Task: structure prediction
Amino acid sequence: MPGIPLVDLAAAYDRHRAAIDAAIRDVVEDTRFILGREVGEFESAFAAFCGTSHAVGVASGTAAIHLSLAALGVGPGDEVAVPAHTFVATAEPVSWLGARPRFVEVDAETGGMDPDALKSVLDRVRAVLPVHLYGLPVDLTAIGALATAAGVPLIEDAAQAHGAEYLHDDGSVVRAGAYGRIGCFSFYPGKNLGAFGDAGAVTTSDPALAERIRRLADHGRTSKYEHLTVGYAARLDTIQAAVLAVKLGTLAQGNQRRRELAATYRSRLDGVGDLVLPAEPPNRRGVYHLFVLRTRHRDGLLAHLRDAGIGAGVHYPVPLHLQPAYASLGYRPGDLPVTEAWARECLSLPIYPELTEEQLETVVAEIRGYFERV
Result:
């Protein structure tokens, strides 16, 4: 393991160890492994945290998107607007349902879906699926207005944005996952709210939609041996719900610590080399799941940091429209130039609540040292 890892799951566990161990032990001793009371308790708490009426625990963030699209009736012949600069899990469920991802160019400043680029595909899509990339909300006012005008649902991929906030012009605040028709969350271990394995959730304030998603996640059943529809095996495990309930209690504190670390990175790296620091639009309050720089020297800086024992990363090096899995869609290099520039230049630095000031200064010193020599 690097001296300063990109993500420190051991430190995160240590911070919650006693409470997590007790919660897991309680589930194991009572053998409440499938849909135990902890699942419902976590769903209620997470819905309240996000500001929605309902949350449905599911097996992963990918399952959250899959179930949401299925519940909305997306299927063969449909198209779904998806940003090209994201993890493949945003687009895979579209393909599973027989629909086609329509890859959309991203905003040069933030890397999120570009509303202007979205306009050109809206006449052909069944749903709009923006990603709150790196924990920063997209321009929800613009994207939401476009989706509403087109009569299609807005589904938020909030897998990296637990607790991120969007500020309306009137001063009101909405959290990620509560703006669109549906919000989709991942609790992959390295997320701001991470489980001890795969887990996810869907948020919505539509009770009928929540019930449809809940039923689809549990084999389409209405009772133990009655099945209204063909569903999936995509429930949230009780043990994961128990872990998540503990960690939800410190999520706001952890997000604030991430913002403080980001501010320190920003002050210490401003003006260094050709670094482009993460954007902070005034009406969006991100949670810094990742602290992502851009530089034309990305590969050299990445190698330097790794040689120094620093676990930097790249999110994401190959845009979705150029992935071999989507070659059949006919995209070519140059089709989405802003996305492709992000893929060439983005670099993620370590950021998590347990990162110390000393560790951060070590990262900064190595970056400064690199640019003094190039």
